[in-house]
Amino acid sequence: MAIVGPDYRFICVDISGYDKNSDGGIFDSSNMGQRFEAGLTNIPKDKPLPGQNESCSHVLIGDEVSALKPYFMRPYPYRQSRLNPRKENYNIRLCKARRVVENAFGILVKKWRIFFRPIATKVETTILTVKTACVLHNFLRDKQCDNQYCELQPPDQPSQQSAFTHMETDPKRATNLAFSIREKFVDFLNAK
After folding, report:
1. Neighbouring C-alpha atoms within 13 Å toward the C-beta of 121
2. Stated pTM of the model
3. Which of 103, 75, 71 is closest to 89 using CA atoms?
4. CB contact at 8 A, 124 and 29
């Protein structure tokens, strides 16, 4: 699991899950997921979306297998979005934002070809290899694109807006809060 910023840098990685588990299950059982659920993350405070007045939480984004939570947005189910242009637009924009994560992993794999095949080492060595590759990836991303590594960057640049903020957790109200936050993003993405 990884949190990736708009500059294709890995902000947080958790290398503890196995491929046989779903992404949502891996996130929920990971240290990262448990820290988000407990509200123990160091995330910036809520602030309004660009051009908006009402404060909104920064969130992680995921795919349809992820659970909707106040700190984790997912697309609307197809049955709900196919007949609602606002929800469909939200899903399309969320998918485009998720591509940043996919692109970051693509850049990582293209540069460090060890990921083209299963890594035949002990689990501890594999974890260390993945962490090292992520650190090196970030180091090379920090260079001012004066090297060949930065040329692998996809042509469509995302905006440099922050993606996270601190959120109060209330397990009894999480679903309603999550729906409310998603509606703010739907309104914002359909206002443009």
Report:
1. 12
2. 0.74
3. 75
4. no
Quote the Cα angle for 48-73-184, to 5°: 35
Q: How far is residue 26's CA from residue 34's CA, in Å, rounded to a whole number? A: 11
Percent of the chain with pLDDT over 70: 81
Task: Print burial letters for 42-60: b (CB count within 10 Å at least 16), e (below 16).
Answer: ebeeeeebeeeeeebbbbb
Q: Where are the alpha helices (DSSP H) in 66-173?
A: 78-81, 85-111, 123-142
Range of the domain at 156: 2-191
**Helix 123-142 with 85-111: angle, nearest 10 deg:** 100
Total structural domains within the chain: 1
Distance from C-alpha of 94 to C-alpha of 90, rounded to nearest angstrom: 6
- Alpha carbon distance 181, 1 (integer Å): 23
Per-residue burial over 146-158, b if 16 or more Cβ lie within 10 Å, else e, is: eeebeeeeeeeeb
Question: Which parts of the chain have pLDDT scores under 50?
Answer: 144, 146, 149-173
Q: What pLDDT digit, counting tens, does each position of 21-37 carry?
A: 777 778 888 888 888 88
In 3D, which of 87, 82, 49, 41 has the Cα closest to residue 68?
Answer: 87
